[in-house]
Amino acid sequence: MITADGLVKRYGDRVALDDLSFVVPEGEVFGFVGANGAGKTTTISILSTLLGPDDGDASIGGISVRDDPQAVREMIGYVPDFFGVYPRLTSLEYLEFYAAAHGLARGRRRQVAGELLDLVGLADRAEDDVDGLSRGQKQRLCLARALVHDPSVLLLDEPASGLDPRAQVEVRELIKELQAMNKTILVSSHDLPELEETCSWVGLISDGKMVAVGPMAEVRDHATGGRRILIELAGDAESAARLVEAFPGVERVEVGEEKLDVAVSPDLVEHELLGHLVSNGVKVKSIAAARDDLAKVFLRLTGEAG
């Protein structure tokens, strides 16, 4: 649904995007992760047709941002990292204005605006001036604004930036609801735990280059060298490690205090390994997939981890 193919963008002597390529399949929530200045906002600006690439191309739903930017704009809803509102309009008037700007029929504008206010949890603020809304409420209103023309793709640049914890949860739940409506969503954020809970795919960008992209689990496995299992024990880990090392499909065992971090082949079955240990008298507290969090994965793949 979203494709970037060899994007290059320069600002004077600085290369902001360096042959950047990735694909976001239809219906996925794609977390776009990178440090400040890595190229996230430049990429989103190109995808939203606000900025042209110096080389390469991008497309939304198969439509090139170079060849037909107007058609692309009709397919996307864009929420920038800095949002502005018209303070003297009510929430309902604000959305009706944007519905008109997108060419919705006059008789449909108020209905659509009301439905969107309900979707983002602002139905009770429909007649309130926008200026009186909290920052989190304004952010949800801007998400509603991006939906007035029912786009199939949403581009969200730091949608939870500066929000309090409750507002962050509200935005996260709204994104999940939009995915359930079959929207394809690209989310740029510095809040990596938030992205882990929300996103099904992830792309890690560093210095204008994509260092990893794909389903969240695959990117994690790639960063950690493959599939791993964490075994917590109630007893000596060294003797348990010898039993684990001899089990078919086990590739590497790291021994900790009453725990084992085990690298295994993709076809190893966890409950069979558990049965092997229990039948040999090993007391197992728990056995589960071991995955580094997204922050550790990002640092490792961008060469910033120790």
CATH class of the largest domain: Alpha Beta
Beta strand %:
25-35%
Major sheet summary line: 6 strands, mixed
What proportion of the residues is helical, as a percent range? 25-40%
Total number of helices: 11
Distance between the termini: 36 Å
Major β-sheet strand ordering: 6-7-8-3-9-10
Order of helices and strands: EEEHEEHEHHHEHEHEEHEHEEHEH
CATH topology of the largest domain: Rossmann fold
Compute the gyration radius: what is it?
24 Å
Estimate the global geometry from the Cα principal axes.
elongated
Could you say how many structural domains there are in total?
A: 2
| CATH superfamily grouping of the largest domain | P-loop containing nucleotide triphosphate hydrolases
How many strands in all?
A: 14
Query: Uncertain runs with pLDDT below 50, 5 residues or more?
Result: none
Mean pLDDT: 88
Question: Which structural category do the helix and sheet elements fall into?
Answer: alpha/beta
CATH architecture of the largest domain: 3-Layer(aba) Sandwich
